[in-house]
RNA sequence: CGGUCCAGCCGGAGUGAUCGCUGGCCUUUGAACCGCAAGGGGAGAGGGCGAGAGGAAAGUCCGGACACCACAAGGCAGCAUGCCAUGCGCAAGCAUGGGGGGCUUGGUGCAAGCCAGGUUCACAGACAGUGUCACAGAAAACAAACCGCCUCCGCGCAAGCGAAGGCAAGGGUGAAACGGCGGAGUAAGAGCCCACCGCCCCGACCGUGAGGAAGGGGGCACGACAAACCUCAUGCGGUGCAAGACAGAACAGGGGAAAUGGCCCGCCUGGCCGCAAGUCCCGCCCGCAAGGGUGGGAUGGAUAGCUCCGGGUAAUAGUCGCGCGGCCGUCGCAAGACGGAGGCGGUUCGGUCGCUCCGAACUGACAGAUAAAUGAUCACAGCAAGGUGCCGCGAGGCAUUGAGACACAGAAUCCGGCUUAUGAAGGCUGGACCACCAU
RNA sequence: GCGGGUGUAGCUCAAUGGUAGAGCGGGUGCUUCCCAAGCAUCAUACGAGGGUUCGAUUCCCUUCACCCGCU
């Protein structure tokens, strides 16, 4: 499963629109903000890793892990959504599994997955 | 001889497979759009090949390249640097060696001190000037005398008190007290005198130089701080890739200010040497007073500013504010550096420097993102805290096991330095220690 | 990326190189039948490390943290 760069949100206006008009929910490590937008064919994602997460190396690592999570679940994400993933300060010491579990919980709760509440997992 | 540990410096983090990310080249396909058509066009997608973070990429503490702005020249102000030699460098700075000072260890000496080793130093100048040196203490920078010491006189039986004079040895304070130890000398003392040492001045001679120094003179007067102001020498125009260039989009191609004037030139080298503040002096008024008001004079007049005036600039323009809109794309941006030869320009006519052209060879290098590319998973290996066993007199070592953990840290115009961070293995230097042997 | 600034008590701020203060807050005691107010008293700090100096919050260097501005 690939993850081309044209799916990324790149303009401050996109982030501002999700922030002001969309819904959001906070987990332990992440905050997920979403906005329905029927004009996009697939979806658009943005990542925010602020200074609270630490030095540049740590911020880069968190961003790469988050991108890997989005890539792994690309097929499950319903089309027509803009969403922004924001790392909270606790994410600085988290593993990929921690972040993935947190992200799935938030994504189900906000309903951007294809089969939101069908399978109760294991 | 055998073996450990510590510190500093260098070093710069294993291999493979699968999936994924960002550029480059090749290739296949090919949307919008133009065209009657042929065709043009190339967004996007697939495949292949190859490349893809550092020694500090970090902090932004210095310097340079480069870009724009300003600019006659010089001075002032401001900032930076500061022992010497050599080498490298455009510079900042770095390396090696040397000189001098501080601290410390050892030797020597009664001591003061001297010598040697180690270590460290932002190490120009305190005989240009100004300033500071709290507390304590008699006295803190030029001399002086608190407790004291001594002589003589007076009073007193005496202890002692008072007056005159001499002295600076001892005590005490302090970070620092105007040479040190010993002797001679004296009423007591004193470089007053003497030996040794220190200090100051001159200094043959030695050294490229910083500087060293035989010897002579002085009886000693000369404190510290310049990372206080400052003085001397040398250097420096300002802003920074968010520099800057191009192409677009959007909004309101909007409004305000301007000749007794607007804006710019850090200040001066133009003028009246024009004002204000501040300081000092004098008069008057108010007030119990502290003080306040006012007039005149002197200083000050720059380190804030104002004014006259000088220079520059100006109407579909320019300048300075306000408001509004945008904040996207391309370039800058990564293939450039050095050396040699020829030509031209300039020159202090030697070299160097600038520009252009031609030719040849060698070396090194070859990330270029922009909400910002290096990641994920699996397997194997390595180091190692800990556990167990064994070996060794001992410091300790070896074997095995080993869940988890795997240094500091991420390019953002580029380069050079500085500083800071840093658990791999490995290497270099220095120090300490253990065991044995010999003395 | 570039440029600038600030760190003093729990909070807000002072302080010529010479013992670190003020206000609010906190603790204890007194006062009151109790509380408030008041009075007395106590504790608490120069971001960190070096250097210069007899002596550093102050001067110099390095470092850490925080804040602001610039398309």
- How much of the polypeptide forms β-strand, as a percent range? 15-25%
Within the largest sheet, what's the order of strands? Answer: 1-2-4-3
In CATH, the architecture is 2-Layer Sandwich
pLDDT < 50 stretches: 116-122
How would you state the average pLDDT, rounded?
79
**Assembly state (oligomeric):** single chain
The dominant shape is: globular
Helical fraction equals 25-40%
Task: Tell me the number of helical segments per DSSP (H or I, 4 or more residues long).
Answer: 3
The name CATH uses for the topology is Ribosomal Protein S5, domain 2
Radius of gyration: 14 Å
Q: Could you give a short account of the major beta sheet?
A: 4 strands, mixed
Order of helices and strands: HEEEHEH
Supply the key terms.
single chain; 122 residues; alpha+beta; Ribosomal Protein S5, domain 2; four-stranded mixed beta sheet; 3 helices; 4 strands; 34% helix; 20% strand; globular; disordered C terminus; RNA-binding
Summarize the structure.
This protein is an alpha+beta fold.
Structure write-up:
This protein has 122 residues and is α+β, with helices and mostly antiparallel strands. It has one domain (12-109): Ribosomal Protein S5, domain 2 (2-Layer Sandwich), CATH 3.30.230.10. It has 3 helices and 4 strands; from the N terminus they run αβββαβα. Strands 1-2-4-3 form a 4-stranded mixed sheet, sandwiched between helices. Strand 3, helix 2 and strand 4 form a beta-alpha-beta unit. Mean pLDDT is 79; it is low at 116-122. The protein binds 2 RNA strands through helix 1, strand 3 and helix 2.
């Amino acid at each position: 499963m690939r993850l081309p760069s044209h799916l990324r949100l790149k303009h401050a206006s996109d982030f501002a629109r999700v922030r002001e008009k969309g819904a959001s929910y906070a987990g332990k490590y992440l905050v997920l903000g979403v906005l329905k937008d029927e004009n996009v064919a697939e979806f658009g994602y943005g990542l925010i890793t602020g200074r609270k997460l630490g030095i540049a190396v740590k911020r880069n690592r968190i961003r790469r892990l988050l991108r890997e999570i989005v890539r792994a679940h690309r097929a499950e994400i319903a089309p027509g959504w803009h969403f922004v993933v924001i790392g909270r300060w606790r994410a600085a010491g988290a593993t990929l599994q921690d972040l993935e579990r947190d992200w799935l919980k938030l994504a189900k709760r906000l309903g951007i997955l294809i089969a939101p509440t069908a399978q109760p997992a294991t």
